[in-house]
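hey so u asked for the seq, here:
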Amino acid sequence: MDAVAAGEGAPLTALYLARLAQEAGIPPGVLNVVTGCGAEAGAALPAHPGIRKMTFTGSPPTGTAVMEACARNLTPLQLELGGKSPQIVLLDADLTKAVPAIVRSIVMNSGQVCAAGSRVLVHSSLHDRLVSEVADAFRVVRVGLWDQSVDMGPLINARQEKRVLDYLAIGREEGAEVVVGGGKLTGEPYDGGYFVAPTLFDRVTPGMRITQEEIFGPVLSVLTYEDEEEAVAIANGTRYGLTATLWTQDVGRAVRLARRVQAGQVAVNTLGDGGPAGAIGAPFGGYKHSGFGRSMGPDYLEDWTQVKTVVINAA
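ran it, C-alpha cells below
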C-alpha cells in the first residue's frame, strides 16, 4: 500500500498531485492521500502493518515518535528533520552574488523551508559591510499576498506566527540586536494574514537559542569568526546538519571546508536548496538531528525497492 499523509497545515499540494496522477492514468488505489491531523491520520501510517516503507519530513520530536512507531513493525524509515543551515562568508567572497542569495534563502517561502540559510557566519573584518548590505536588501523585500508580485508571503497559520514572534522576543532577551524587522507587519494587506517582517539579528553568539533552534520563519542571524577553525566549529555547533553554503573564490578552500562541514549538502557560491545549486537529481538529506537517508535521485528510487536473491538448480 502506497500512501502519503498530507501536512495538516498544507494538504493542497498532495491533493493536487493525486489529481494529476489520476489524470495521467495511474489506477485508483496505487497512490492514496490521507488528510487529517498528525495525531490521527499521520500516526496511523507508521502503526499500520501494511506499510512497508516510511519517509517523514518534520520536527525531530515528531520524527522520534514516527521512528518508535516504525520500530514496532520493523518498518524501514527515512527522516528529514529540519536544519539550522550556515552560510559561511569568507574574506574573498563576492558579496554582489552572496548578499542577494543570502536574503533569498531566508525569505523564500517566508523562511518556512528546512534548508533555509538561517545563520550567516562572516569574518569579523567583513562583518560591518555584510550586515549593512544585507540590511539594505531586507528593507526592500516585497511582502504581500500570493497573487501579488512579491518576494515573500505570510506564515502558514497563527500558531506558526506566534512561534516566530516568540523567537524574536527570545533573541532580544538573549542580547541579540535587531537591525531590520523584528515584529509583525500591520496595515493593509497584512492585517488579514500572518505576516512577520524579514528580520536580521546581529551580535549573535553560538549559544543563543535563535542560533541553535530552528525558527522556521524569515529570521536571519549573523555571527562572526576569526579564522577557518572557528568558522567550522560554529557551523557544526548545532544538532542539525542539513545544508550549508560557502562563499569564496578559492576553490581549494571551498573543497577543504566542504569536507569538514557536517551537512548533507554543501553549495559553493550558490543556493543549496533542494540539493546543491538546486541540481536536479542530487541526493538530499541530513546529518545528525536533521535525519538520515536521502531523497531525490536514482538512489532514492532504489531505496524503495527490495533486493531478492533467487537460486535455481536447473539440473
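Residues 62 and 157 are 19 Å apart (CA to CA). The chain has a mean pLDDT of 92.
lmk if thats what u needed
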